[in-house]
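Support case: user asked for a sample of complex input and structure output to validate their parser. Sending the pair below.
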Amino acid sequence: MNRPILLVVTPFAADALAPLVEHFEVVALRALTDAAVFLREQGSRVVAMITNGMAGVPAACRDALPNLAVIACNGVGYDAIDVPWATARGIRVTNTPDILSGDVADLALMLALAAFRRLPQADRFVRDGQWSGGPFPLARRFWGSRVGILGLGRIGRLIAQRAAAFDTQVGYCGRSRQEVPHAYFDNPLALAEWADVLIVATPGGQGTRHLVGRDVLRALGPDGVLVNVARGSVVDQSALIDALSQGTLGAAGLDVFEDEPNVPAALLASDRIVLTPHIASATVQTRAAMAQLVAENLLRHARGEPLATPVN
Ligand code: 8YV
């Protein structure tokens, strides 16, 4: 008898798929020569899907997989997955919380430090042979600064720990006050008015879309720094471009963008930004742990066991 199909939508570690082969026939959506034909002819055999928080369930798949029962998101953020839609159809959704938080927090601090101390610019200065013409211009001090964390969830709390170790003052804004020794602000504008650097660590999706807009960027001020390791959608990217080009915001460190992998020319051209290509969780160890957790959830589902990290 044909095994049910596990449809793999986004790139996924082949070795983590090995234990799943006993239960599923694995089909990579990107490897299909004609996805429409596959969905028409084999769609009813698809019971499981691996995707991520940006790709979600591709539009062509939404009504083509009547027996889809589980969606395993290879990431903590699942903003592109329509969870109410899935729940209404009895489709379980899982994600990969916690195991990536340390890496994301590391990158947040790295971007903040790099933006304050102008690390990429200093690196280019040496490489381009400019040092012989005089010293690199002075940068701004990170330690002693006020670090505002937008979203004090699992990742935000680790960012707070790391920031405190750099002798900074930590403040945060979230849905509610928490039992933590940091200053609480009940809205992003108040946090930005207080902070020297605002680190965005909220979930993505409609609920946080453009939470960081013109007013928040203006409040950070000409020496202020914005760091985003969450989702590009949380920051109004055009407002950010304007703020950087007009000098009303000092600098930015960005790992995420509104339309990845497209980064607007105005951001590429700016000398005030440190850019990384959505790599916050991209270490060998963390990506292996994420892939294993995705596989574990799917195995548990196949065996009728409780899911390890359910979303719904
Ligand atoms: C990954 C992420 O880049 O966890 C998330 O929400 O955005 C990142 O860890 C992504 O999920 C890769 O699949």
